[in-house]
Amino acid sequence: MITFDSVSKRFPDGTLAVDDFNLTLPSRTTTVLVGSSGSGKTTLLRMINRMVDPTAGSIRIDDDDISTLEPVKLRRSIGYVMQNSGLLPHRTVADNIATVPLLSGVKRPAARTQALELMDTVGLDRSLAERYPSQLSGGQQQRVGVARGLAVNPNILLMDEPFGAVDPLVRSELQQELVRIQKDLAKTIVFVTHDIDEAFLLGDQVVLLKTGGKIAQVGTPADILANPADDFVNTFVGADRGRRALRIEQVSGRQVVVDGTGRIAGILNDGTPT
Amino acid sequence: MTWVLANIEQIWSLTLDHILLSVPPILVGFLLAVPIGWLAHRYRVSRGVLLTVCGLLYTIPSLALIVAMPTLLGTKILNPANLIVTLTIYAIALMVRTATDAFDAVSKDVTQSATAVGFGGWRRFWQVELPLAGPVLLAGLRVVSTSTVSLVTLGALVGMSGLGYLFTNGYQRNFATEILTGIVGTVLIAIVFDVVLVILGRMLLPWARVDTAARRNAKTATTKAVTA
């Protein structure tokens, strides 16, 4: 469990990125922080592994105040996946995945074997192990990033817009993959995105942020859609434009789901969900 | 050609002296310039000061510096250290700016993510920043190497051995073949040094070639896509 207790962050230039933020992130679930740029979502994420230290308040992981933990050691115990993968361009795929275990003193052969197993976990062909990151596609690089994040078998996995830079088709593939991995591994995932659909797909708990790290609403995707707290939330999830108000129309004998803007959202399936 | 063959032993011994005088400034200059360049890259205050000082060093006339060395170092006038220290200063002056650029060129995304996964400062320098600065450092080192090999010939003017002797001697005797031999010899040493550096680079930075190739491929792919 991760707890934010009255956390504020003012940067040296005077910007108040986060103001009196309180939140509990339950263990073994996915919490998605979603908001536009300037909402402080990345700052909040980076506070969890002490890449950024709060100017006020405290953050606890289970019962440990993280300000008492040694940053480098703390970071090695937390998985981190970022946009543009952040892989080391001078190391092969297998070495990149093994980075953190090697830093923590795991012997090379053991770290390698584990790296290859992780490649299976994230759906990468083992034949790519000796390639360099620049020889991979964007989607493959992102998978390597996820594998690296999982390498020390961390309880917590931080993901900073990990799928932001890949094309929509690959993104949806990676999202499904993450859902599958999370079903098996049940990590405490903190996921940052500006894409509300991604947030609803991945989040057990979704945190909608306004400027300055102000929470607009916290809840399950269903909660937020069913009871949007205010106009800001309505706008953000697209309810004000009718995107979330679906109705059924009959088209050539089939039931078609149409949203408030008239856009076809899909076909109503009378069978079991696929 | 007959002159060359007749004097091959002397030419060879001058060549060896030339190499012995060239290697220390290149190595020491490189080893000192890398940490200075890193400091200039890391701290904004030191950047201005260091880069300006190094720029100024390079404007001191080389001959003047060699002649001044015995006074500065307290060495004898014919001590090779005079030449070696002078050339080391030039090597540093040339190399520091490149080293600064080399560290600047390392992607911030990569160093940040290295920190985020748990590299401490020291390890991050050795395992991430230094290797990634490698290709630009190598490019700078090749310039320094060539320039040093050519500057060693100046030593002949203050009585130092090396292929420069063939210039002064050939000039006094008004004998073009000897001067030409000196030029060709100097160029050959510079080429050999350069080849050695390139091979070292390929061995130590195998990923750099892949990286460039990948980028080139990506570029042709885009060009193709655009023209198609």
Automatic annotation (TrEMBL), chain A:
One of its GO terms (molecular function) is ATP binding. Residues 2-237 form the ABC transporter domain. It is an enzyme of class 7 (translocase). Gene3D superfamilies: P-loop containing nucleotide triphosphate hydrolases. It comes from the Bacteria. The keyword ATP-binding applies. Keywords: ATP-binding, Nucleotide-binding, Transport. Its EC number is 7.6.2.9. InterPro entries: AAA+_ATPase, ABC_transporter-like_ATP-bd, ABC_transporter-like_CS, P-loop_NTPase. The keyword Transport applies. Signal peptide: none annotated. Pfam families: ABC_tran. Belongs to the ABC transporter superfamily. PANTHER family: OSMOPROTECTANT IMPORT ATP-BINDING PROTEIN OSMV. This is ABC-type quaternary amine transporter.
From TrEMBL, chain B:
One of its GO terms (biological process) is transmembrane transport. Keywords: Membrane, Transmembrane, Transmembrane helix, Transport. The keyword Secreted does not apply. It is found in: Cell membrane; Membrane. It is a multi-pass membrane protein. One of its GO terms (cellular component) is plasma membrane. The chain crosses the membrane at residues 20-41, 48-71, 77-96, 148-167, 179-200. Residues 15-201 form the ABC transmembrane type-1 domain. Belongs to the binding-protein-dependent transport system permease family. This is ABC transporter permease.
